[in-house]
Amino acid sequence: MRVKTPREVLLVEVDRWCSSAACGARTRVPLTKDEARSYTGFECERCGRKNPDALAERDIPEWWEELKITSLDGVRERPAQGGGEEEPGEVVGRMSDAWKSLGEGRGGEGSF
User: Fold this and answer.
1) CA distance 39 to 10
2) Which of 61, 86, 69, 82 is nearest to 11 (CA)?
3) Exposure winner among 4, 30, 38, 59, fewest CB in 10 A?
4) Is position 71 within any domain?
5) Would residue 67 count as lying in a domain?
């Protein structure tokens, strides 16, 4: 009998501290790319409290742009904001500009 264990490449391990003033324990959270995309918090190892959290660029600097492009924010609910539409981020803007420049070299947006 063979036992198969699915293997995923670990992207990063981040250090977090419990937000409870009575606990404040340090928790290490190991994440794969898929887990990083859907990360919204962690459970404290000591007290079991659920702590809402989000990854920042300082947590995963070498993967930040890739995860932002592949929907790091897309899996989370956005807070309701009054007013107009949100401006696209810097990465989205650069990708849009690059795509437009490719279209111009091929004779416009309508041609493929």
Assistant:
1) 14
2) 61
3) 4
4) yes
5) yes
Provide the token pair at 72. Answer: 């790091």
Q: Which domain holds residue 64?
A: 8-75
Tokens 């932002």 label which residue? 68
Q: Are strands 41-43 and 50-52 parallel, antiparallel or unpaired?
A: antiparallel
Q: Where are the alpha helices (DSSP H) in 20-89?
A: 33-38, 64-69
Q: Is residue 28 part of a domain?
A: yes
Tell me if the pTM is above 0.90: no
Q: How far apart are the C-alpha atoms of 75 and 93, rounded to whole Å?
A: 20
Structure tokens at 16: 């977090």
| Residue appearing with tokens 């930040």 | 64
Structural domains in the chain (count): 1
* Residue 107 backbone phi and psi in degrees, to 5: 100, 25
